[in-house]
Amino acid sequence: MVRPNQQAGIHDFLERQRWFAGKGRTFTIEGIHPLEWLSPPGVWPAVRVELVTLRYETGEGDEGGRTDVYQLPLAYRDRPASESLAHAFVGEWEHPELDATVWAYDALHDKEATSYWLRGLLDERAEEDFSFHRTGDVGISGDEQSLVLTAEQSNTSLVFDEAALLKVFRRVHHGRNPDIVVHEAFASGGGRNVARLFGWLEAEWPVGDGGAKVDRGDLGMFSDFFRTATDGWELAITSVRDLYAEADLHADEVGGDFAAESYRLGATTAEVHTDLARLLQTAVWGPIELAKVTHGMYGRLDLATSLVPELAAYHEALRSAYDDLANYPDPVPVQRIHGDLHLGQTMRTVAGWRLIDFEGEPARAFAERDALDSPVRDVAGMLRSFDYAAQHLLTGTERPDALRGPGSEDHGQLEYRAQEWSDRNRAAFCEGYASVAGADLRDQAVLMRAYETDKAVYEVVYESRTRPDWVKIPLAAVRRLAGVDQEAT
Ligand SMILES: Nc1ncnc2c1ncn2[C@@H]1O[C@H](COP(=O)(O)OP(=O)(O)O)[C@@H](O)[C@H]1O
Ligand SMILES: O=P(O)(O)O[C@H]1O[C@H](CO)[C@@H](O[C@H]2O[C@H](CO)[C@@H](O)[C@H](O)[C@H]2O)[C@H](O)[C@H]1O
């Protein structure tokens, strides 16, 4: 039974979380299913994972009536915790099993609670409805304290002693999590460009109202933590800032030129694709599969146009990119890919580039996320990302000083430089990719245009929902891809 205080506390807590994808939509909590306790009886905080099923009552596009299951690990205390946990407070309610009034906190922020996850992995703990699986030596003792990563995430990640990372999946589903499938394939088959897998936590829970049917899925993944790494997005935008600071210089003349890194990142991406093709399934698409994939693209464009009316003006021109793909005469090799590749999914370590987060686009149905696809989708995603890195400072609140007040006449010049930075790094990435793959994907212009269009359309919806100031960036790409602005690629 869901108690009113519990329901209200969890509802409000979800709405405040960066990782909650249902923000701004009306939803009700349909059920809360607790797993077995992680903590022993009689110990505070009492800790367990609770699975919250919610239903969107109304919504935009395809959201109405859909249900989602969110993972909420809770730490119950018999009195309020210190101020430092205030941001993780979920609510206060009567707890019949604990026979007490409890103060509930998000357990992942509570250092006294998170050791149950690390110990669970090291001991390969198994209970009736959850089990930890360890795939190798983690190299830590189990007494390490956790830190929650502050990165903007769709999930929540904890670092133990800068040695192990636990990513707790917030939206859970039946079946294997694609991130674990890919890391497991690399762990067993070799391949150096992704984090080493240490293990995962899996569970089962009833579907709907506790009937006989159960879902079985992954709740979290443990991996190597790259302690020396810097996020690719941060590195790229540092280079762009350097360029703006030296607006009289060209992209190849400034100290922070990024092209050599973009080239290496292209080569790493091609290596990852080669490994994925070697380790997991591959296939070749003919006309039937191309009709299916373009059907998805037309559908996403129609939905996006209904959500963001500004797209209507480009609708027909964008469709032509998909028409060309639907009529593509040659077979198209497909394989497992990353699925949501952008600079924020890359990390530069001292030993080279690494790719993270193989879960696919957060807005996509889980059933579609492990579908085979062309590597061109990932390359197109990265090309979009270089465009974002170059453009985002010219947009909204983050404009550099040079674009504010006196001197803002420089805007045209900075726009020109931004385009130059984007072109230079997009080209370097493709050349690096070709150096390993043996083929330059820019030569596959039909595929490249269709996938880049699909991504830009996705981004228009993503930005209009999450960062309206930034929607100009993908809209500019939409105009270019529709042939309205004849800029360089
Ligand atoms: N193996 C790793 N080592 C160090 N930092 C990592 C690692 N994996 C992820 N991160 C950091 O965590 C952030 C979020 O990771 P990601 O897998 O993209 O999570 P999400 O799926 O929640 O978006 C990344 O932007 C990066 O800063
Ligand atoms: O990292 P996630 O899996 O949560 O991906 C989502 O969020 C991304 C933003 O953080 C979003 O990426 C878009 O913005 C990036 C800059 O912040 C840019 O580099 C990407 O090219 C652009 O697509 C991603 O689309 C979304 O799925």
Automatic annotation (TrEMBL):
<comment type="pathway">
    <text>Glycan biosynthesis; glycogen biosynthesis.</text>
</comment>
<keyword id="KW-0418">Kinase</keyword>
<comment type="similarity">
    <text>Belongs to the aminoglycoside phosphotransferase family.</text>
</comment>
<keyword id="KW-0067">ATP-binding</keyword>
<protein>
    <recommendedName>
        <fullName>Maltokinase</fullName>
        <ecNumber>2.7.1.175</ecNumber>
    </recommendedName>
</protein>
<keyword id="KW-0808">Transferase</keyword>
<keyword id="KW-0547">Nucleotide-binding</keyword>
<dbReference type="Pfam" id="PF18085">
    <property type="entry name" value="Mak_N_cap"/>
</dbReference>
<keyword id="KW-0321">Glycogen metabolism</keyword>
<comment type="subunit">
    <text>Monomer.</text>
</comment>
<keyword id="KW-0320">Glycogen biosynthesis</keyword>
<dbReference type="InterPro" id="IPR011009">
    <property type="entry name" value="Kinase-like_dom_sf"/>
</dbReference>
<feature type="domain" description="Maltokinase N-terminal cap">
    <location>
        <begin position="13"/>
        <end position="110"/>
    </location>
</feature>
<keyword id="KW-0119">Carbohydrate metabolism</keyword>
<dbReference type="InterPro" id="IPR040999">
    <property type="entry name" value="Mak_N_cap"/>
</dbReference>
